Amino acid sequence: EPQQPHDDQSPAPEHTPPRSRPLTNRGGAATLIWGVLLVILVIGVAVAGWWVTSGRYGEIPQVLGQDVSGARAAVEAAGFTATVSEVYSDDEPEETVTGTDPDAGERALRGDDVAVLVSQGRPTVPTPGATDNLSAYQAKLSDRTLTWTVGESVYSDDVSSGIVAEVTPRAGQAVDTGTEVTVKVSKGAKPVKVPDVSGMSERQARRAIESAGLEVGDVERRFDEDVDGGDAIGTDVDAGSEIPGSSPVTLILSNAITVPDLEGMSADEAAAELRDLGLSPGTGDGVSDTSVSRGDIADQEPSAGTRVDPSESTTVTLRESTMVRVPFVIGRSVDSATKALEDEGLKVTVDGRQDGRVITQSPGPTSRAAVGDTVTVRTL
Fold first, then answer.
1. CATH number, domain at 313?
2. Which residue range(s) make up the domain with 239?
3. SS3 content of the chain, % helix, strand, coil (to 5)
4. Of 10, 186, 255, 344, which is least packed with CB atoms within 10 Å of its CB?
């Protein structure tokens, strides 16, 4: 029979396994560090969000009533870079701070430029410069807050065509900002007629040109057979033409040389006068001229009064007279009379005694005869 258990034995107690701890590789210190980092991250994100949304912006301060240095200091203290900009003002005196750009109370990125506006007072109408065309002058007006209207162009002796000649109100006048200025552009000098100066002396021609409101520019010399040297042939612009006043015109003068009258002069005298005028003497064949003594000039080519071109041939051919004045030999011996006549290039025929004295001669005394002609003397 199976053995029964004893009644005094109590049942064996149940075995309870121990409770397991959660698995982790962090100690208490690590947890603390991670917590701190998390807090810092949260704060950083919050600060960054604040900076992006509003923290990097500042409010531009009110600077009215301050001097320039004080206004700049206030702008910089608010976190901005202060600059100074001059502006025109109808109400604020010069050197007065009128505000800022951007305006006070507006928000802007810290570090941005903020201009302190300083009054220059009322603007003045700018003076047109010597090279100010319409667009250049309009830019000057805009810089001074002024507007413009373009008036009718005007003639001006002093201002070149296309340059601003007149403005209204006058240049330099103080006006309100936004004032409209009437601008008139020059059409150049008023046209005048070119005078006819042909045949005038150079001095007269210059006076006529200047009296007409023009100027003598270059002076050109050319040949004209009808105008004496040094006198005016004309101008490079036809007489009667209209050109702008004060314009330069070229005065054209004659360079002609007028051949002088050399008849009756000795060959040496005639040659010297020609050279003084810039002409060259030449020698031609002798001529028989009863009015001019032997060796003196009896003919010339070109003739006296002819105008010649100095750039071309300037030779004047001189022809000496071959006529001699028959010497007075009446009363002389035949030998003395013969010598006197032969010295003049004349031949002698004696009618009468060789040892007598001359009582007549033919041709007569002081008349002229050609060299080689015969003079007949009669003796007693």
1. 3.30.10.20
2. 191-255
3. 20, 30, 50
4. 10
Among candidates 117, 113, 109, which has minimal Cα distance to 71?
117
Give me the number of domains the chain comprises: 5
The answer to whether residue 3 is domain-embedded is no
Inter-residue contact 242 to 193 (CB < 8 Å): yes
The predicted model gives 315-322 an average pLDDT of 94
Residue 12 domain flag: no
Cβ contacts of residue 375 below 8 Å, gap of 6+? 326, 329, 341, 346, 347, 348, 349, 361, 362, 363, 369
Assigned domain for 213 exists:
yes
Q: Where does the pLDDT of residue 289 fall: very low under 50, low under 70, confident under 90, or very high at 90 and above? A: confident
What single DSSP character describes residue 353? -
- The band of 38, judged by pLDDT with boundaries at 50, 70 and 90, is confident
pLDDT in tens, 227-275: 999 999 999 999 999 998 889 999 999 999 999 999 999 999 999 999 9
Please state, in angstroms and rounded to a whole number, the distance separating the CA atoms of residues 368 and 271.
Answer: 25
In this prediction, residue 137 has a pLDDT band, given cuts at 50, 70 and 90, of very high
Strand 374-379 and strand 347-351: the pairing is: parallel
| Tokens describing residue 148 | 């413009």
pLDDT at 157: 85
Per-residue model confidence (pLDDT) at position 371: 85
Q: Three-state secondary structure along 205-272?
A: HHHHHHHCCCEEEEEEEECCCCCCCCEEEEECCCCCCEEECCCEEEEEEECCEECCCCCCCEHHHHHH
Backbone angles phi, psi at 118, to 5 degrees: -115, 130
Residue linked to tokens 């903020």: 114
